[in-house]
């Protein structure tokens, strides 16, 4: 891990110099442009008559043409002359669901493109993937990127617009149709250096977060490059800093607990006489070290066990440290665009899992024991490092992509290599053999109630889990048109590729070494097409509206699994203006990841879990890692979607989709325990053996000791989800609106008003051909796009954006094993720690911005759920969960008097925010109205309300 150590300690210095090289020449502003900062370097709109040929599609020298188009090109198949694609044009005929312009992007107040992607998550996540809510595929200027590192250093000010596409768009780029597509169209000429410092604090205390970022980004028509660095640090949060009560199911305590060994269970008849009752256990009082113990000292703790000392030595959230350096370079070489990128990052996480316990035998003749009988002492040893877990991860990524045009087809060749080295070290406590022997022998130098002599203790050998994952990949994709049809061009995408993934896992568990290596080679071939059938208003059937078909197929050949097939298709229909409908179906087979199969086993002690069988909160050992017996899954997905814009002159639109899926051999994690899981997988649960001498034998259930949570295959799962939402945008005030934008059917405009690093300029300096405020529907190639306004917000103009999304789960059932009844996760069944699946989820957001300042209010709500505890346990009721967050930003250079007096304010932005504004946490109750210890509020949400503050400086 020398690489990780060097990297982490070098980030502070890297941030100090990142993007601050002298001698940078400012770009000239357009004549008449009113900049928001003298240091502004954006000059995207130098002229509305500048060529904006997309780099990957540059098929002719630049000409002086309208800003929204490039030179003409000739289709290789049909022989007809067509307009070349505008800047940032994506593949295929599927139009974006939403388009966000500069003003929309500015209103989010994001400091980086990564933050913007996170803020857009409610609009871009997809429920069609194997991992739940899948993030979007990122494109830049309509092109695939070599990796996330190519995107991470781009500031939001460099983005001209952002387009959100449905999952079917991914097929045009060779991906599965289970992720939405987010396309960022960049300005043609832009340069910016950025430094940012962000701090976060939990209002309940105990948890702080700090992150420093710095970088430089430059784009100059056919070339762009970026380099950035970040360093992040998080402090640990301990259980004692929250309302956490450890389980009393274990007999250990820091001071100790005494238990009797007589046949009647008493510690000492004399102690029972003092206490006035039979005493079978007693907690050790403080201050007994030095041989001063007497029977009277134990009366107050008679028949009481103390076991609440782990809270000071166990973390709810780990200490974290992370650093990364990333860079990317892209430019045109004739008709070919080449991009290279790299990423080097290192993370470290440290958790404390409690204290080691020791069982000591005190004989009646022990000089420190006041008891006339032999007794047993259980105590913790104050050595938190003995059960510490440290996880270090180093990652290296290198990637390259080449894009170009050949005979009217856009081709992409890409390759990447990444390696992740992870090392986990988990303490297994102390070797107390010598210490226990000395106490049992009555050594007068060893006080069982006092400090433990260091000479009698040594750390036990740690459990280790090391893995090295390498991935090498190469693929080729080509997209273009096959022929011209009356309703449009038949477009196709083909892809072939090969990758090799290897996971080398070594572990040592309780001194027993294990090694597992997995190498998985995969060859892929896929094809997809878009076939326009009808165009609204054209031909005899034009009254039916625009209709198009799409289809796709994928074959994957794995060296260790065999062949897997994916086939899908759909139809898109726009019957009238403002309405779009779609139907898609896919059947696919998917493999378990090498990590799910081959990750090393990791044991975590002292994990609090609620045991439904007994109704108790217990501390168990959780086993994690890979499962080599996992099988591929198979799923069928049907999706219906609609889009509706009821008013032509208002920025209001409604969208929705209905998804039904059937998954056979579903690959699922094993996140929690439930009666159904224990019944289906009894070998995954280890309980204490109840001796036959116990009076409650055989009806008594032994205490839960460990849970194996490695992934499994469930028999099948059935889901039906309805999602819908509405978006509304309103602008008022400010100067008169610029000239109207393109009419329906015209190519989208890509020119925009000039913007400095802080945001918009006055319309006088911008291009008159930008999209008009107020937005509207744009119809192109049979598709339909909702434009949420156009251009950056002019000074004095106020902008309000409101969006509401609702998820309604109609059905969510799982059959764990064949022959068992389905589990209704919406009504009493659970496979997760947070109860069943909420039937309803609502997300709402409102943004208000004006002249360099803005505020965003975000709210979410999840409906309540419950879990059937079975015949033995209590039912659990999980309350609904409403949360609210507030964030605001202020450009400090909006006040010219300030910037004249304090020059450093130029290009500075202050952000303030509060997450979980009212510190709302989910409440869990059982049948008695009590909250089990494992479901205390601070277990469910340790951080709680968090305050954020950041300062961003643009140079």
From TrEMBL:
The record's principal subcellular location, in a coarse class, is: membrane
Compositional bias ranges of the Gly residues kind: 772-793
Q: List the keywords (alphabetical).
A: Cell outer membrane, Membrane, Receptor, Signal
Instruction: Identify the InterPro entries for this entry.
Output: Beta-barrel_TonB_sf, Plug_dom_sf
Compartments reported by the entry: Cell outer membrane
Q: Where is the composition biased (Low complexity)?
A: 36-71, 742-771
Q: Does the keyword Amino-acid biosynthesis apply?
A: no
Q: Where is this region: Disordered?
A: 26-93, 737-798
Signal peptide as annotated in the record: 1-16
Its name, as the record gives it, is TonB-dependent receptor
């Amino acid at each position: 891990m020398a690489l990780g150590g060097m990297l982490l300690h070098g980030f502070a210095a890297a941030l100090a110099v990142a993007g601050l090289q002298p001698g940078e020449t400012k770009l000239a502003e357009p004549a008449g442009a009113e900049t928001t900062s003298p240091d502004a370097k954006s000059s995207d709109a130098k002229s509305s008559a500048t060529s904006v040929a997309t780099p990957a599609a540059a098929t002719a020298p630049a000409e002086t043409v309208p800003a929204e188009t490039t030179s003409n090109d000739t289709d290789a198949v049909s022989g007809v002359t067509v307009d070349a694609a505008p800047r940032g044009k994506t593949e295929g005929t599927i139009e974006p669901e939403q388009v966000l312009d500069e003003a929309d992007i500015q209103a989010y107040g994001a400091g980086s493109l990564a933050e913007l992607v996170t803020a857009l998550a409610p609009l871009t996540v997809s429920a069609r993937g194997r991992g739940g809510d899948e993030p979007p595929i990122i494109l830049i200027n309509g092109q695939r990127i070599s990796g996330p590192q190519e995107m991470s250093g781009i500031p939001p000010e460099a983005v001209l617009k952002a387009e959100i596409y449905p999952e079917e768009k991914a097929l045009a780029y060779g991906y599965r149709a289970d992720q939405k597509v987010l396309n960022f169209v960049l300005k043609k000429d832009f340069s910016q250096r950025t430094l940012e410092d962000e701090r976060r604090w939990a209002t309940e205390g105990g948890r702080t977060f700090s992150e420093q970022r710095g970088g430089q980004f430059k784009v100059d028509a056919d070339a762009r490059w970026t380099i950035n660095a970040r360093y992040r640090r998080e402090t640990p949060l301990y259980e004692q800093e929250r309302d956490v009560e450890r389980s009393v199911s274990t007999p250990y305590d820091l001071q100790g607990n005494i238990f009797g060994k007589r046949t009647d269970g008493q510690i000492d008849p004399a102690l029972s006489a003092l206490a006035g009752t039979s005493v079978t256990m007693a907690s050790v009082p403080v201050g007994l070290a030095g041989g001063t113990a007497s029977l009277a000292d134990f009366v107050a703790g008679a028949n009481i066990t103390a076991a609440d000392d782990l809270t000071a030595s166990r973390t709810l959230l780990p200490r974290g440290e992370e650093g990364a350096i990333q860079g990317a370079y892209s430019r045109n070489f004739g008709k070919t665009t080449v991009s290279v990128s790299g990423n080097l990052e290192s993370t470290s996480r440290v958790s404390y899992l409690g204290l080691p316990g020791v069982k000591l035998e005190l004989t009646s003749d022990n000089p420190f024991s006041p008891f006339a009988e032999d007794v047993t002492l259980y105590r913790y040893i104050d050595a938190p490092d003995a059960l510490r877990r440290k996880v270090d991860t180093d990652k290296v990524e290198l990637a390259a992509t080449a894009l170009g045009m050949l005979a009217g087809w856009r081709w992409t060749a890409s390759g990447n290599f990444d390696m992740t080295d992870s090392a986990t070290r988990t303490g297994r406590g102390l070797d107390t053999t010598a210490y226990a022997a000395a106490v049992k022998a009555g050594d007068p130098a060893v006080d069982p109630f006092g400090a433990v002599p260091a000479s009698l203790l040594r750390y036990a050998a740690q459990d280790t889990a090391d893995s090295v994952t390498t991935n090498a990949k190469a693929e080729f994709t080509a997209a273009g048109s096959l022929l011209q049809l009356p309703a449009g061009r038949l477009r196709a995408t083909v892809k072939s590729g090969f990758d090799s993934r290897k996971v080398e896992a070594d572990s040592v568990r309780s001194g027993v070494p294990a090694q597992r290596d997995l190498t998985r080679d995969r060859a892929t071939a896929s094809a997809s097409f878009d076939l326009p059938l009808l165009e609204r208003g054209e031909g005899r059937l034009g009254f039916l509206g625009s209709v198009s078909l799409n289809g796709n197929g994928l074959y994957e050949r794995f060296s260790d699994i065999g062949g897997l097939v994916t086939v899908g298709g759909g139809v898109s229909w726009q019957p009238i203006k403002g309405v779009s409908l779609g139907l898609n179906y896919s059947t696919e087979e998917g493999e378990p990841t090498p990590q799910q199969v081959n990750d090393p086993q990791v044991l975590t002690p002292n994990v609090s879990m609620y045991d439904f069988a007994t109704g108790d909160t217990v501390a168990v050992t959780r086993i994690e890692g890979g499962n080599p017996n996992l099988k591929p899954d198979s799923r069928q997905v049907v999706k219906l979607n609609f889009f509706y814009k009821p008013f032509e002159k208002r920025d209001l639109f409604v969208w929705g989709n209905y998804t039904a899926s059937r998954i056979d051999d579903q690959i699922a994690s094993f996140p929690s325990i439930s009666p159904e899981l224990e019944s289906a997988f009894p070998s995954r649960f280890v309980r204490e053996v109840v001796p036959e001498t116990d009076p409650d034998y055989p009806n008594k259930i032994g205490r839960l000791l460990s849970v194996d949570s490695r992934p499994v295959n469930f028999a099948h799962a059935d889901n039906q989800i309805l999602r819908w939402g509405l978006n509304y945008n309103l602008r008022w005030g400010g100067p008169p609106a610029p000239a109207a934008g393109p009419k329906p059917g015209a190519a989208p405009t890509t020119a925009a008003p000039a913007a400095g690093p802080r945001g918009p300029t006055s319309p006088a300096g911008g291009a008159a051909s930008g999209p008009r405020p107020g937005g509207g529907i744009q119809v192109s190639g049979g598709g339909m796009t909702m434009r949420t306004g156009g251009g950056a917000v002019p000074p004095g103009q106020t902008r309000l954006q409101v969006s509401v999304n609702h998820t309604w789960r109609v059905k969510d059932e799982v059959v764990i094993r064949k022959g068992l009844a389905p589990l209704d996760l919406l009504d009493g069944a659970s496979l997760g720690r947070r109860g069943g699946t909420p039937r309803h989820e609502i997300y709402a957001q409102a943004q208000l911005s004006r002249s360099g300042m803005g505020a965003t209010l975000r709210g979410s709500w999840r409906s309540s759920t419950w879990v059937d505890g079975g015949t033995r346990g209590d039912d659990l009721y999980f309350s609904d969960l409403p949360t609210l967050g507030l964030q605001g930003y202020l450009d400090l250079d909006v006040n010219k008097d300030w910037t004249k007096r304090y020059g450093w304010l130029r290009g500075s932005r202050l952000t303030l925010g509060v997450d979980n504004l009212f510190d709302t946490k989910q409440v869990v109750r059982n049948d008695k109205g009590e909250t089990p210890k494992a479901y205390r509020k601070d277990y469910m949400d340790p951080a709680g309300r968090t305050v954020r503050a950041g300062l961003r400086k643009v140079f």
